[in-house]
Amino acid sequence: MTVLIIEGPDLAGKGYAIEKIAKSFKNGFLIKNLYKPKEHTDSKIYKQYWAIMKMCEKQEFIILDRFFPSQAVYSYMRGDDEMKSSMIKMLDQECSELGYIYVYLDTSLDALENRFDQRGDEHIQKKDLIKLKKRYDMFWKQTKMDKIKVDTTKLGWLELLKEFVEDCENEYKRYKRTGKSSR
């Protein structure tokens, strides 16, 4: 089982990256959670995260278009900061143990701002880009999942990602077989 969690701030190029990744791997499923919490006390979103993880158990290859890392990053916009919440930590630990791979679309702030100037965004304001990028960087540092930063404006990003995924798959298989990690 391979699960890629594709994350990054609005305008980071998730749609483009997911399209390229899906064509490259040629099998599996793309899952996008359509429920958006309206307030910080909304626990329904966490039930959905656990349900999605349950669905992933039975599949060979899954791409998650945003997942709980977005909850941690964007929570401040709903008046709360869930970056270090116990639920985020539990989800991160479980995803780490299951071998999920965190793919952070680390698009430069200049590129994000240029894209905002060209096409705008219905969910955020331009001033939010700096904070969102910083919060994604913060999540990157704290996650226990296997992780890779990808800049889709650079040549070779997809090949680099494919190699990383293959290495992670092999490491996870070795770990399941021996109970030991080489990392």
Q: How would you characterize this protein structure?
A:
Helices cover 50% and strands 13% of the residues. The protein has 183 residues and is α/β, with parallel strands linked by helices. It has a five-stranded parallel β-sheet, with helices on one face. Strand 2, helix 2 and strand 3 (61-65) form a beta-alpha-beta unit. It is globular. The two termini are 20 Å apart. The relative contact order is 0.19.
* CATH-scheme architecture: 3-Layer(aba) Sandwich
Radius of gyration: 16 Å
Taken together, the total number of domains comes to 1
Report the end-to-end length measured between terminal Cα atoms: 20 Å
Number of helices: 7
Mean pLDDT: 90
Global structural class: alpha/beta
- CATH class type: Alpha Beta
What attributes does this structure have?
single chain; 183 residues; alpha/beta; Rossmann fold; five-stranded parallel β-sheet; 7 helices
Summed up, what is this model?
With 183 residues, this protein is of the alpha/beta class. The chain contains seven helices and five strands. It has one domain: Rossmann fold (3-Layer(aba) Sandwich), CATH 3.40.50.
Write the layout of secondary structure elements.
Elements: E1 2-7, H1 14-25, E2 29-31, H2 44-56, E3 61-65, H3 68-74, H4 86-97, E4 101-105, H5 109-119, H6 128-142, E5 146-150, H7 157-178
Parallel strand pairs: 1-3, 1-4, 2-3, 4-5
